[in-house]
């Protein structure tokens, strides 16, 4: 009987071992952030001086923020900046971007700066502040600022207020103020600024900005 039992066990088919599920694949690394860039150009017709072109080129990748300016701090002056952008999330959204830069040309110096942009429903506010620390005998320390508060009447038209403090040209007021009228289309916008409309010598700035 024992011999018959051993013969039966030997003839039984062998069972495959339990198959183990393969380990999960490691998560894919996050895709690298893409560069986003924007270009803003300004044709400025100051009082008692010839018109000139100013431009601001910005590039962002993740929190990294880079900027280059032409004729912003002064005519025939070029400046470059590097900074970090901090997002502001919620019903009131936007970003805060401190940066540091250097300028060369007619004005030379080190330029700490910051920008703040906020959106709430149809209202938008932005401010950009720079402080030029002159590094040459011909460059004085100076505080620059550009501020906008606008309201979107529709997707195609917004109006608002603008103020700036600049050292590029002489003006009667410490801070120029006025009105803005903008027409956005896609990632671009055309904006007209009328500064000091209540004075005898108001002036106009036309801006075109686009993102790509």
Description:
The protein starts with a helix and ends with a strand. It has one domain (35-211): Beta Barrel (Porin), CATH 2.40.160. Strands 1-2-3-4-6-7-8-9-10-11-12-13 form a 12-stranded antiparallel β-barrel. It has 1 helix and 13 strands, in the order αβββββββββββββ. It has one helix spanning 2-11, and strands at residues 36-45, 52-61, 64-70, 77-84, 86-88, 93-105, 109-120, 123-134, 142-154, 157-165, 176-185, 188-195, 203-211.
Q: What labels would you give this structure?
A:
212 residues; Porin; twelve-stranded antiparallel β-barrel; 58% strand
Concise synopsis of the structure shown:
The protein has one helix at 2-11, and strands at residues 36-45, 52-61, 64-70, 77-84, 86-88, 93-105, 109-120, 123-134, 142-154, 157-165, 176-185, 188-195, 203-211. It is mostly beta strands. A hairpin with a 2-residue loop joins strand 7 and strand 8 (123-134).
């Amino acid at each position: 009987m024992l011999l018959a039992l051993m013969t039966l066990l030997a003839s039984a088919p062998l069972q495959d071992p339990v198959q183990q599920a393969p380990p999960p694949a490691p998560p894919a690394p996050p895709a690298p952030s893409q560069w986003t860039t924007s270009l803003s150009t300004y044709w400025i017709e100051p009082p008692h001086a010839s018109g000139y072109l100013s431009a601001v080129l910005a590039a962002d990748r993740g929190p990294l923020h880079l900027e280059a300016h032409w004729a912003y701090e002064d005519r025939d002056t070029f400046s470059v900046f590097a900074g970090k952008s901090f997002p502001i999330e919620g019903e009131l959204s936007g970003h805060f971007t401190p940066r540091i830069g250097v300028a060369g040309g007619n004005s030379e110096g080190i330029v700490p700066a910051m920008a703040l942009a906020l959106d709430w429903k149809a209202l938008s506010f932005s401010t950009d502040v720079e402080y030029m620390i002159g590094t040459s005998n011909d460059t004085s320390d100076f505080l620059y600022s550009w501020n906008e508060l606008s309201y979107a009447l529709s997707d195609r038209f917004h109006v608002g207020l603008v103020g700036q403090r600049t050292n590029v040209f002489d003006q009667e007021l410490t801070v120029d103020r006025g009105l803005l009228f903008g027409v956005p289309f896609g990632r671009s916008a055309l904006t007209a600024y009328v500064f000091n409309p209540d004075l005898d010598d108001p002036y106009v700035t036309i801006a075109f900005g686009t993102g790509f």
